[in-house]
Amino acid sequence: MNTQNKLYALRRKMDEAGINAVIIPNADPHQSEYLAGHWQALKWLTGFSGSAGTAVVTQKEAGMWTDFRYWIQAADQLDCFELFRQGDTDVPSFDRWLANTLSADDRVAVDGKIVSAVQAGNLKNKFAQKGIVVDTTMDLISDLWQDRPPMPLTPAFELDVAYAGETRNEKFFRIRKKMKDHHADCHVMAALDDIAWAFNLRGQDIHTNPVNLAFAIIDMHKICLFIDPGKVSAALGTALEADGVILFDYNAFYEAIQGLNKKSRVLLDPERISDFIYQTIKMRSDIIETANPSILFKCIKNQIEISHIRDTAVKDGRAVVNFLHWLDTSDTPTTEICAAEQLLNFRKEQDAFIHPSFDSIMAFKEHSAICHYSADLDTDLPLSPDAMFLTDSGGNYLTGTTDITRTVHLGKPTSQEIRDYTLVLKAHIAVATARFPTTARGYQIDAMARQHLWQQGIDFGHGTGHGVGFFLCVHEGPARLSPLPLDIPLGPGMLLTNEPGLYREGQYGIRLENMLLVIKDKKTQFGNFLKFENMTFCHFERGLVDKTLLSPREINWVNDYHHKVYDRLAQFSQIFC
């Protein structure tokens, strides 16, 4: 079916069910950012392939909302859906638009098995003010999706404690201590990265995300893991059982939560669990709403992980520097897709490399202004010596996860391109050199990056940085460097990116990204202070830097950084040979 036929079929189903509007989020039962094909209903219905979006369908209208990163991509991919540029001036949120479109007593459907408890609660509260009913018991998509991909069945494997730095029993002990602090008898987990971290398990159920589809229930006496038995080898099963883990089939989870003790006090994170799970447990048990203990634990890397991350920074730096050298010297005609394959080959040469941490963004000319551009056979541009080229990529290694962006010019840059690049570099340096108290939040550091752009009337529509997992998801919470006023203090051991950008639609985009580790700085009479340790080694493009726009301090930082890159990579990388 094409998009028009899918909308027709969906509207018939809505009419039969007495539904006036349906909300289709980009979500799965685990609140994942990236989804297995089985759960990509938004892509199936709309044709939009980005990782963030929400569609709304009424009997007469169809709209899709996505943020700045995907505005250009969505405009190109959508046909029967109106694009709403979420976050743009005077653009209503999807729920406000829907509330203004519908009437009292109208009914809105959203699948409670994939929407989070927090999202569902917010929708119910907002629509109740206008007398609109939200029904979370309906899945109107599955029956229409005839060629739906099956559930993934890739093998799970153990992350050795030599990499993890902590056994799963040590992690279970910490989780149970937090449960006791909250007077909880039981903890229900659905977020895949939380489960992967707690059980020291990895997999490949989601493209580029080393996780397994699973649920978990931890109480004070037993630990239950719900996972397809076909993913667990005999050896892994024996190891898990030796640590007290009881294995159940993935689909047995929903029956298990219905059988929880009625007197149980269940700790769960309403932002990382579906509304269906939340409501099922709420009918039987008392709920303690708080962040999953694991999300707070895993964002603070232990000393073993940090040691591996430092080694991984060198390995990944070799790959990217060799790629940029190849890009600069190769006489072989290439394209955006071929460039991505070449970088992957350089990463495959590195020890302990498993797979990319996300699909590489190889963006030439105007494509570089598309924040999360993804080349395909229809858009793949040949590279030529006359424009900007942005490469945003990362790797998942047994020894850590990486994320790096560099922007180069394949010919002679214009004065505006040089100025823009230098402004982004100044923003990058402002964060890299920041000193801040232990009370600082990410939005305060984010403003440090933007100051140099704001002074020129320039801004960018994404956060300055995000957390990064350890051989896990490349986007990890709870900390981030973003304008959002999140009350999450930065602390030693947090791994974050520093990636300010500048995008001129239809012309070019610039982004410069390193990873940074939060470390202790010093104690003064005003308190304890923190700073960042660089965790990425790859040169910047000197030909795009206007030194007259840099302060002496900034020039010294660039020179010192390049010396560090040389010291760590010279013996390994072709560019220094």
TrEMBL record:
Keywords: Aminopeptidase, Hydrolase, Metal-binding, Protease. SUPFAM superfamilies: Creatinase/aminopeptidase, Creatinase/prolidase N-terminal domain. It holds the Pfam family Peptidase_M24. Residues 308-518 form the Peptidase M24 domain. The keyword Hydrolase applies. InterPro entries: Creatin/AminoP/Spt16_N (IPR029149), Creatinase/aminopeptidase-like (IPR036005), Creatinase_N (IPR000587), Pept_M24 (IPR000994), Pept_M24B (IPR033740), Peptidase_M24_C (IPR032416), X-Pro_aminopeptidase_P (IPR050422). Residues 528-571 form the Peptidase M24 C-terminal domain. It comes from the Bacteria. Residues 7-135 form the Creatinase N-terminal domain. One of its GO terms (cellular component) is cytoplasm. GO terms for molecular function: metal ion binding; metalloaminopeptidase activity. Belongs to the peptidase M24B family. This is Xaa-Pro aminopeptidase.
